[in-house]
Sequence to fold (230 residues):
Amino acid sequence: SAVISQKPSRDICQRGTSLTIQCQVDSQVTMMFWYRQQPGQSLTLIATANQGSEATYESGFVIDKFPISRPNLTFSTLTVSNMSPEDSSIYLCSVEILAGSEAFFGQGTRLTVV
Amino acid sequence: AQTVTQSQPEMSVQEAETVTLSCTYDTSESDYYLFWYKQPPSRQMILVIRQEAYKQQNATENRFSVNFQKAAKSFSLKISDSQLGDAAMYFCAYRSPNFGNEKLTFGTGTRLTIIP
Fold:
């Protein structure tokens, strides 16, 4: 299993500013993912955080808006840049220890942009 | 690309009764993984049950079981003896076995209400 600490749990931010979300795992993992969950909707993958290389972004998400760092096998950050009210969502970090096994999730960051 | 469809936005069930949540998916892959996740108001995503496509036997976890119909691409979740703590959003998810495509593709979710 894996225990994920995600910070902050919630924040209210002004439009035009940036917020960095941290994801810390209690064990080394290969696969780390960042998801967005817009209000009342399902989870959508933003990107896969790769250790030692650039993140792999899904269609509709770009590095300038959502820069991701993955300095080691237990930590990653997601930054939401130049925020607008449309960025108000829950952002979740997820890890997978073994291929096809259970994906573990952080408790999410509820972001409100005003 | 794979898609996952949950046609029931909301479901309700009497406490102690049984309820079935539906999920269908579309894929051209022959091997894959399917999951049901639960998201209570705390936002924490919790794995309910997991199924590997190559296994014909339906997965079970205590009060939770699935009806996996590979040919029909159907993966329904049955909750028996429903409890108040089962109230949550339930998401069906698909995962490819292929390297470089390990992401989970989620359905739109079903909100389950338990009636005391």
Notes: The two ends of chain A are 37 Å apart (CA to CA). The interface with chain B takes residues 31, 33, 41-45, 48, 58, 90, 92, 94, 96, 99-103, 105, 107-108, 110 of chain A (CB under 8 Å). Chain A has a mean pLDDT of 93.
